[in-house]
Amino acid sequence: VHKLNITPIGKIMAKRINRAIELLEQDQTVYYDGGHTGHVLTYEQGLKDAHIWADYINIGMEHGSFDMAGLDQYIQGLIDGGPTKSGHRTPAVIVETPVEGSSEEIIRFNAWQFRMILARGVHGILLCQAETPDAVRAFVESCRYPINMTGVGHGLERGTRGTGSQPTSAPVWGVDADTYVDKAEPWPLNPEGELLLGVKIETVRALSNCELSLAVPGLGFAEWGPGDLHMSFGIKRDPSKPMDPRLLEARDRVKAACDANNLAFLE
């Protein structure tokens, strides 16, 4: 006779705050839902998405509206509709930002976007059009508190994220303010971190620098962007025809750079 010990769904205890990181630590595939042109950011939609099938929810603010009030309401709906079947307080939420990673200066001037998004209590950020390693480094530093020193002096300077948002972000994670500061760190740079930072390689310039950009400490994953890469190569996309060999080579190059730096590759 075989006995199954079944724990009620509501009693499952998650090992981590961030479901996506928990799975990546186990070498599991991570699945997401959500488009690149926005999301319905309402409390009611959050209630509906609290038990979504996906491991994380992508919020597309690169092309969608930069709606912080809506994001607040949506995440509150996720909390009130939770926990998830896996025992997490909410599904992980990762936001694509409007700023493009074409230079360090552009990232520094627009770091306020990362601060405002992180203040909502999200679990990760995806930087689009990440074209240079200096831009990627500035991105990682902008998402970190200066008190957290892992990696500083080894490819990174101290973080520039200011204190003050813990009253809104910590409750989303279900922790106190001090614990949030400790855990609002990029994984796997900090093994205890709960932030998943990623970049999109989606222009010819980004592709030419991808080996250097993806070696910047603090990243957890990278994605190749076939839509923008088609345009950057000057190729008109035709879904009815096989993909251009240059695009296939680009995909393989980004994947190889991810493998070389132990980053997850997002298809």
Give the helix/strand layout.
Layout: H1 19-25, E1 32-33, H2 43-49, E2 56-60, H3 68-81, E3 92-100, H4 104-109, H5 111-119, E4 124-128, H6 133-142, H7 166-173, H8 177-183, E5 196-201, H9 204-208, H10 210-213, E6 221-224, H11 226-233, H12 245-260, E7 264-266
Parallel strand pairs: 1-2, 2-3, 3-4, 4-5, 5-6, 6-7
Helix pairs in contact: 2-3, 7-8, 11-12
Q: Number of folding domains?
A: 1
Q: Give the terminus-to-terminus CA distance.
A: 43 Å
Strand order of the largest sheet: 1-2-3-4-5-6-7
- Under CATH, the topology can be stated as TIM Barrel
Describe the global form.
globular
Identify low-pLDDT runs.
1-10
Mean of all residue-level pLDDT scores: 95
Q: Radius of gyration from the CA trace?
A: 18 Å
Secondary-structure arrangement, i.e. CATH architecture: Alpha-Beta Barrel
Largest beta-sheet details: 7 strands, parallel
How many strand segments?
A: 7
Strand content: 5-15%
List keywords for this structure.
single chain; Pyrv/PenolPyrv_kinase-like_dom; about 270 residues; about 40% helix; TIM Barrel; 12 helices; 7-stranded parallel sheet; alpha/beta; disordered N terminus; globular; Aldolase/citrate-lyase_domain
What's the gist of this structure?
By secondary structure, the protein is of the alpha/beta class. 38% of the residues lie in helices and 13% in strands. It has a 7-stranded parallel sheet, with helices on both faces.
Question: What do these coordinates show?
Answer:
The structure is a single chain. The protein has 267 residues and is of the alpha/beta class. It has a single domain, classed as TIM Barrel (Alpha-Beta Barrel). It has a seven-stranded parallel β-sheet with strand order 1-2-3-4-5-6-7, sandwiched between helices. The longest helix has 16 residues. The radius of gyration is 18 Å and the shape is globular. The N and C termini lie far apart (43 Å).
